[in-house]
Amino acid sequence: MNPTILLIIPAYNEEQNIRSLIDAISSIKYSYKVDVLIIDDCSTDNTLAVCNELNLNVINLPCNLGIGGAVQTGYKYANKNKYDIAIQVDGDGQHDPAFIVELLDPILNNEADMVIGSRYINKLGFQSTLIRRIGISYFSKLIKVLTKQEITDPTSGFRACNKRTVELFSKRYPVDYPEPESIMYLKRKGYRIKEVPVHMKERVGGKSSITSVRSIYYMTKVSLAILIDKMRKQVI
Questions:
Q1: What is the C-alpha separation between 112 and 106, in angstroms, rounded?
Q2: Nearby residues of 23 by Cβ (< 8 Å), 6 or more positions away
Q3: Is-contact 204 96, C-beta < 8 A?
Q4: How many beta carbons lie within 10 A of that of residue 27, not counting itself?
Q5: Are 68 and 173 in contact (CB under 8 A)?
Q6: pLDDT tens readout for residues 153-179
Q7: Nearest 5°: phi and psi at 68?
Q8: Does residue 156 contact residue 119 with C-beta atoms inside 8 Å?
Q9: Reported pTM
Q10: Torsions phi, psi for 119 (to 5 deg)
Q11: pLDDT tens, 87-129?
């Protein structure tokens, strides 16, 4: 039986990117039926209007929840509708849908519970800004020290989850900058995580919510959350 697959696309003020992303997804011939769900995180631009024009399945959040809340909304939807696999694709167009098949393969072969698309395995495509690369390297080293597993791209939001992981994330998912913290959470629960090489693109339109000042808050907050999660394992 073919698996049911949902693409979860969180979007906040992505009117300049969402159309080209959907065009790229639509141009790919998948071997399985793939549904698309846009989570409009209370955008203040015309993101919702563009989605409605394209006749997309959209959840329009009544208030801005941030990336963690938006993504968890997608996982709740996937769990409620009994999808076998959920794949997160950011609405800014940086994730190339052509690599969705690579994310799917380890899930379909029962090799992993979550698969992360990493730009740092083959180091091709857009490698992010210098300050973000420093942060990514820091979190990669921290996670390796705490879990003994190397995750080369711990901040990547390009990821696929099996049904077991979808159910877990539908119940609990980090709120702010959730990617590294969710990795630690899965490792504490004994879930299998695998990375596959992908290419990423530079954002074309709009702007990222992570500024230089926010980056400092991000690293501090997520570091504390990861360390607390590690201590939970030791206590429990």
A1: 6
A2: none
A3: no
A4: 9
A5: yes
A6: 999 999 999 999 999 999 999 987 899
A7: -65, -50
A8: yes
A9: 0.89
A10: -85, -5
A11: 999 999 999 999 999 999 999 999 999 999 999 998 876 767 7
